[in-house]
Automatic annotation (TrEMBL), chains A, B:
Keywords, comma-separated and alphabetical: DNA-binding, Nucleus, Transcription, Transcription regulation
Span of domain T-box: 24-207
Portion of the full-length sequence here: 1 to 218 of 329
GO cellular component: nucleus
Name of this chain's protein: T-box domain-containing protein
GO biological process assignments: anatomical structure morphogenesis
Keyword Ribonucleoprotein: no
DNA sequence: AAGTTCTCACCTAGGTGTAAAGTT
DNA sequence: AACTTTACACCTAGGTGAGAACTT
């Protein structure tokens, strides 16, 4: 289902951002992870997300330039722990201090609307880290905290003093099914199994167990 | 040795292109290949160059934006063939019709001078093909013809009507030691041996022969 | 005979979870 | 006890020239 922008950017210009629509790719895979309580590994050197955050975009002005970026907002101010006996996440106290807030610019930015719209936009170069001192430009997250990824679409306004209008030139998209808890090691074994079953790079850990293929939904 | 631009772009602007200097990386490796008569494989699906065309750039305005691109000019209007008995290239007649002229934009283009200058700029994504109908954007060359790669540095002028000044906004760099003959299979066995000795992806063909390491120059 | 295409084993480069070891 | 780090085997993805097969 397409997602309408959280911020309405209606204004009189030929190219604005109000008509932009964004659809999450691999929606049903995200739903399966979200249903189990999704986890994403963070490491010192940085770890990719899986599933990858990928979207299909429509409604851009083909000739105008846009910048796409992703950030991660804490869902709450809590620290979590996993209760193995009940297979569930419990609140373990107040959240730790937020690490330096960073954004990940899609490496193709800036690009024209026609470029963004003609194929799936994939944020597969993005990496998550728990290293507060990271200087590779990775996204820094607190382990055992819950995060919501957000996509921002920014119209590059060629006019001088465009900062005056900047508030009208971007919109934000948030897909609740992409929420996850950052971890240094997987807690829920069902998450581990679904990652192994669906991530091509983990094929070496697959068994002949047909349950491993259940994510195919067929 | 830095290479001064072929085209002098002196003009009164704060940022121009006349002061740009470009230095070829892996110069001594290029020299060794050039000394033997360099060959580059072309295939239907596209083949990387080796050595890779890499440069170090200085003299740009850090704040201005530049586009970098590579093209390949025929050195002459001749077709060559390799004489195995004399281990040398001979003229085999007039050159074939030139394929569609293409340029390869460096994928980071456009970028600010500070970005281009802070590390080696590598054209390792560029691929050479002999397929006249290629639609992957690869550089199309005639096999058994000789080519000279050229680097163009284009200043992105933010002023309106910048096309009026466009002729002053680019310069071209040409390194004679990067010249080569396009082939579908290597002709000179010494070129083959030097490629195997110096290209990490050909390590599987290396023997214990110490000659294979001669390119190290030690 | 000369040049091109194709498949292949062998690499580089780097993304996986595992299990043991380390840390607090 | 709870969490993090590290080395590792096993993958994906794709860049090599060899050599056989194919084309003209």
């Amino acid at each position: 289902m397409p997602c309408a922008p959280d911020v309405d950017g209606t204004c009189g210009k030929a190219a604005n951002v109000a008509s932009v629509r964004v659809q999450l790719e691999m929606h049903s895979l995200w739903e399966q992870f979200n249903h189990l309580g999704n986890e994403m590994i963070v490491t010192k050197s940085g770890r990719r997300m899986f599933p990858t955050f990928q979207v299909h975009i429509s409604g851009m002005d083909p000739e105008s330039e846009y910048v796409l970026l992703l950030d991660f907002v804490p869902v709450d101010d809590k620290r979590y722990r996993y209760a193995f006996h009940s297979s569930s996440w419990l609140v373990a106290g107040r959240g730790d201090a937020s690490p330096p807030g960073r954004v990940h610019f899609h490496p193709d930015s800036p690009a024209r609307g026609s470029q963004w719209m003609k194929q799936t936009v994939s944020f597969d170069r993005l990496k998550l880290t728990n290293n507060l001192l990271d200087d590779n430009g990775h996204i820094i997250l607190n382990s055992m905290h819950c995060y919501q990824p957000r996509l921002h679409v920014v119209l590059v306004d060629p006019r001088r003093d465009s900062h005056i209008y900047a508030q009208r030139n971007f919109c934000t998209f948030s897909f609740p099914e992409t929420r996850f808890i950052a971890v240094t090691a997987y807690q829920n074994h069902r998450i581990t199994r679904l990652k192994i079953a669906s991530n091509p790079f983990a094929k070496g850990f697959r068994t002949a167990d047909p349950d491993d293929c259940s994510y195919l939904g067929r």
